[in-house]
């Protein structure tokens, strides 16, 4: 038996451990979106088990499926979830409607499910539902606080077309028709220190314009800057797309609002030569390595959280490309090695 450690040694050990834990907490978390647009998917308990055995710590759910929430109880997974887009207007108009949603879909699970974010709207800005988002966010926040969950943060998810300009990244700006809504949304996010969630898909940019976008720029293989934007140099299109949103937030005086990638990924079938398991493996591996190690040129010290899309190939989605973003086949076998 070795010598008894002194109080000073114990203090130093505790300080080292706390520092290590803090650095882990500050590191961006990587999650996977759990879509259910398939008629051959495994039952939710098996899916949650697959998340855990694959060491995927965060899950995004597109609406509150009771059978999934039940399976999440006691899992330890961090959960991001939204309501159906069509319910948002009622939340904006009625605190009672927001309360009812939280009491039905959050409260019964709150002791056993680790809810982190509630996203009010998936790609509803721009669009007819969009102007309802700020009021709905506030009413859901009120409902969460009443339910004893003030630390669950409320946000929304934007597509790239919420930006009227995105190239070069410093030109990033919200479209005129959503600027007022996004100013209100950003104010709510700033109050909570919550991130704005964005969907970022280099695949769609590349496959639609391969003559102007190089594979090196898409797959993180560029050895020199492809885009120089003032003092910022861009070696990959992912950073450029994200920083266009950062610039847009700066233009509405909310540059302090952080970003979270709500979806990114690469399909394995449906659009040769761009879609393949090899391309998906390369892109997803490179983006994972990138975001867990560094920020974007415009936010170099901020390590973002990120969700990949998606856990499974989903055969009820529209079109072969959309059906083949999954890491796993419905039989739980990997489409390619990743986790």
From TrEMBL:
EC number annotated for this UniProt entry: 3.2.1.39
Keywords, alphabetical: Glycosidase, Hydrolase, Signal
GO molecular function: glucan endo-1,3-beta-D-glucosidase activity
Pfam families referenced in this protein's UniProt entry, alphabetically: Glyco_hydro_17
Catalytic activity: Hydrolysis of (1->3)-beta-D-glucosidic linkages in (1->3)-beta-D-glucans
SUPFAM superfamilies: (Trans)glycosidases
KW Signal (keyword) present: yes
Signal sequence, start to end: 1-27
Family according to the record: Belongs to the glycosyl hydrolase 17 family.
Protein name in UniProt: glucan endo-1,3-beta-D-glucosidase
Organism classification: Eukaryota, Viridiplantae, Streptophyta, Embryophyta, Tracheophyta
């Amino acid at each position: 038996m070795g010598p008894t450690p002194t109080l000073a040694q114990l203090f130093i050990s505790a300080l080292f451990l706390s520092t290590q834990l803090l650095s882990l907490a500050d590191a961006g978390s990587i999650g996977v979106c759990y879509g259910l647009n398939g008629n051959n998917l495994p039952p939710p308990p098996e899916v949650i088990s697959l998340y855990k055995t694959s060491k995927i710590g965060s899950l995004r759910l597109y609406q509150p499926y009771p059978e999934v929430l039940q399976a999440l109880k006691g899992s330890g997974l961090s959960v991001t979830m939204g309501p159906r887009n069509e319910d948002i207007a009622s939340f904006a108009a009625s605190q009672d409607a927001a309360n009812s949603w939280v009491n039905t879909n959050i409260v019964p699970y709150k002791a056993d499910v680790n809810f982190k974010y509630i996203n009010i709207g998936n790609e509803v800005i721009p669009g007819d539902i969009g102007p309802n988002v700020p009021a709905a966010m506030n009413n859901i926040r009120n409902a969460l606080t009443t339910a004893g969950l003030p630390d669950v943060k409320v946000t929304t998810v934007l597509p790239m077309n919420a930006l009227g300009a995105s190239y070069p990244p410093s030109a990033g700006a919200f479209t005129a028709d959503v600027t007022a809504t996004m100013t209100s949304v950003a104010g709510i996010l700033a109050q909570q220190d919550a991130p704005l969630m964005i969907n970022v898909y280099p695949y769609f940019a590349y496959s639609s314009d391969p003559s102007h976008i190089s594979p090196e720029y898409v797959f993180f293989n560029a050895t020199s800057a492809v885009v120089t934007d003032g003092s910022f140099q861009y070696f990959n299109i992912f950073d450029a797309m994200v920083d266009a949103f950062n610039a847009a937030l700066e233009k509405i005086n909310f540059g302090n609002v952080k970003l979270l990638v709500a979806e990114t990924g690469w399909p394995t079938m449906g659009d040769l030569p761009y879609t393949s398991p090899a391309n998906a493996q390369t892109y997803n591996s490179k983006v994972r390595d990138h975001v867990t190690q560094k920020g974007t040129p415009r936010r170099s010290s901020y390590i973002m959280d990120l969700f990949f899309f998606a856990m499974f190939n989903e055969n009820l989605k529209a079109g072969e490309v959309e059906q083949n973003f999954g890491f796993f086949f419905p039989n739980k076998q990997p489409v390619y090695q990743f986790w």
